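hey
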């Protein structure tokens, strides 16, 4: 065989040994369509299996929300008592307010403990299913996908789901209940001032809608590139003798740097879009405080509300904006977890290895000869180490 043919065969062998060096499609950047609804339904199914723990967490969240909503009304009563607008005793009111705040703090602590345990149980089951699936995958799947990408789904993607369950979901549940309870009591105190305060919600919804789409897009891209980067590193380490033997260090370095630069850009875009949500929501919340101070003072002068109600409204406005801010901030984490869950479920949905067939009976008088045979798991892509 001629020298050029040897070099060409060596290059083909190197590309099969290190798929990250010339075949980006092997990393699965477009291996399945994005489907938010189906992914969420499958995630919910894991929560259904932990009904008792989910119910306990929801109970703690509801109790803590009630304490958080009731405490500012006690503060309003205490201020009105000091101002002489109520004739009740001050010390029992202060003692009750202190007890409510202590119960609220305790519920927050218990909520964190339950959510942490819930996340570990759900993610533990998900890891078991994923590892069991890897043992039953057909060889062609592992031949067509980077080992590092498969490992990334087992580690990084599952860990993102764990972080979301333990941190983001409790904030989401408690935030939603806090918004409902705060809106109800603000309308009960003074519906005019409440409606003026809710005007800032429109700005919040618009800001969230604009940024949410970008966060979802960039977070999904980041997860894909992270799997590609892990695949390049893993295959570089396992195929290091081949890289050195054929002097492909520069090509491998260039491949890694290109993927790392793309991952850096996607990570910056995701973090920027997620990070600006908090400051934007804080700015909108401050606008709400200005509205309450201006119109609350006017309503107090006209006798529509008391000074204590203004104080309570300021606290309630903060309680109303805080969960919105938290939901906006954890939205990036939710999108990252959903993107990771899609990648995990894509592996779980792969068909198992076909183990059908009959054992071959041995015969001492027959022989099997292979001539001009090649082999591949994917059409047109010869398997590593197999040549005509």
């Amino acid at each position: 065989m001629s020298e050029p043919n040897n070099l060409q065969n060596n290059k083909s062998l190197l590309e099969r040994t290190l798929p990250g060096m010339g075949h980006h499609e092997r990393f699965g950047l477009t291996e399945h369509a994005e489907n938010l609804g189906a992914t969420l339904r499958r995630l919910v199914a894991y929560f259904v299996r932990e009904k008792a723990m989910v119910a306990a967490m929801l109970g703690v969240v509801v109790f803590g929300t009630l304490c958080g909503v009731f405490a500012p009304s006690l503060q309003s009563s205490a201020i009105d008592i000091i101002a002489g607008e109520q004739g009740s005793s001050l010390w029992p009111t202060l003692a009750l307010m202190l007890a409510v705040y202590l119960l609220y703090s305790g519920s927050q602590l218990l909520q964190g403990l339950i959510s942490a345990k819930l996340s570990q149980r759900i993610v533990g089951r998900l890891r078991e299913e994923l590892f069991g699936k890897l043992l039953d995958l057909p060889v062609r799947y592992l031949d067509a996908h980077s080992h590092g990408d498969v490992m990334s789904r087992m580690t990084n993607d599952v860990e993102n789901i764990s972080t979301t369950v333990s941190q983001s979901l409790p904030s989401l549940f408690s935030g939603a209940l806090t918004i409902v309870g705060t809106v109800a009591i603000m309308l009960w105190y003074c519906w005019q001032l409440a409606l003026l305060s809710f005007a800032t919600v429109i700005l919040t919804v618009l800001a969230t809608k604009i940024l949410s789409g970008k966060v979802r897009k960039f977070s999904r891209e980041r997860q894909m590139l992270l799997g590609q980067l892990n695949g390049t590193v893993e295959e570089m380490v396992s195929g290091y003798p081949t890289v050195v033997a054929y002097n492909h260090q520069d090509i491998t370095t260039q491949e890694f740097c290109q993927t790392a630069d793309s991952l850096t850009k996607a990570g910056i875009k995701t973090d920027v879009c997620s990070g600006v949500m908090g400051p934007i929501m804080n700015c909108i919340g401050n606008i709400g405080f200005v509205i309450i101070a201006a119109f609350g003072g006017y309503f107090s002068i006209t006798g529509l509300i008391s000074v204590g109600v203004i104080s309570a409204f300021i606290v309630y406005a903060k309680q109303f904006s805080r969960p919105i801010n938290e939901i906006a901030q954890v939205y990036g984490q939710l999108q990252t977890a959903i993107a990771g869950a899609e990648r995990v479920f894509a592996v779980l949905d792969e068909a198992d290895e076909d183990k059908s067939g009959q054992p071959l009976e041995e015969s001492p008088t027959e022989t099997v000869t292979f001539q001009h045979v090649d082999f591949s798991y994917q059409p047109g892509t010869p398997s590593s180490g197999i040549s005509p």
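The longest helix spans residues 90-136. The radius of gyration is 30 Å.
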